[in-house]
């Protein structure tokens, strides 16, 4: 399996001197697009109704659970990144920590799967899930992940989203009440102006 992982990596990894436009696009997908997740959750909370806000809280819980599972996997089994074993070309700096599963993709797909699993949010979930594909490609292309790291991220993200939905009765209502109270305290003036939903 590791041999297949290496072969697929070398097939997808950038050449030593990549096209400048492809490199710029890959860097955008790999390093910057991840900020769309907190931005989308924030917009959903600030402009959405109660159902949307609760969906954003569940999506946040799914992302956090996915990242916690990743940490546990990394502590139990440390898998080197391609550059740690001298494989391929690495075009962005990255810490020499465990590669499996990808934290970027786990967070992204955990939020996507959470929205897919929730009625009324499936369109956003499909869009996020599809946008995760170029992120996965970019992380491999730039040399910081293996293809199997992305498959692991899909599995962990699905588990995180499932657990977050299974446990809603334990955290959603108190979490929503606390978040709503903080929201009113922070955005009271903007709510009065009608810029932010109450």
UniProtKB/TrEMBL annotation:
Q: Does the keyword Transmembrane apply?
A: yes
Q: What is this protein called?
A: Undecaprenyl-diphosphatase
Source domain of life is Bacteria
One Pfam family here: PAP2
Report TM segments.
Answer: 20-43, 55-78, 98-117, 124-144, 150-168
| SUPFAM superfamilies attached to this UniProt entry | Acid phosphatase/Vanadium-dependent haloperoxidase (SSF48317)
Give the originating organism.
Castellaniella denitrificans
Q: Where is the Phosphatidic acid phosphatase type 2/haloperoxidase domain?
A: 55-165
What are the leading ranks of the lineage? Bacteria, Pseudomonadati, Pseudomonadota, Betaproteobacteria, Burkholderiales
Q: Which UniProt keywords apply?
A: Membrane, Transmembrane, Transmembrane helix
């Amino acid at each position: 399996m590791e041999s297949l992982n290496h072969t697929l990596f070398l097939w997808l990894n950038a050449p030593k001197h990549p096209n400048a436009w492809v490199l710029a696009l890959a860097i955008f997908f790999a390093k910057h697009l991840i900020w769309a997740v907190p931005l989308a959750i924030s917009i959903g909370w600030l402009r959405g109704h109660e159902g949307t806000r609760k969906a954003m809280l569940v999506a946040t819980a799914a992302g956090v659970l996915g990242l916690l599972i990743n940490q546990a996997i990394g502590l139990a089994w440390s898998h080197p990144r391609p550059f740690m074993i001298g494989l391929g070309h690495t075009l962005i700096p990255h810490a020499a920590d465990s590669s499996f599963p990808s934290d970027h993709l786990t967070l992204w797909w955990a939020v996507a799967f959470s929205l897919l699993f929730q009625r009324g949010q499936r369109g956003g979930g499909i869009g996020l899930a599809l946008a995760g594909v170029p992120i996965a490609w970019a992380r491999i292309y730039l040399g910081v992940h293996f293809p199997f790291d992305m498959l692991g991220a899909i599995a962990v993200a699905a588990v995180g989203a499932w657990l977050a939905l299974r446990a809603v009765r334990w955290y959603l209502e108190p979490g929503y009440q606390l978040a709503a109270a903080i929201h009113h305290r922070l955005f009271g003036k903007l709510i009065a102006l009608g810029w932010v939903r109450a």
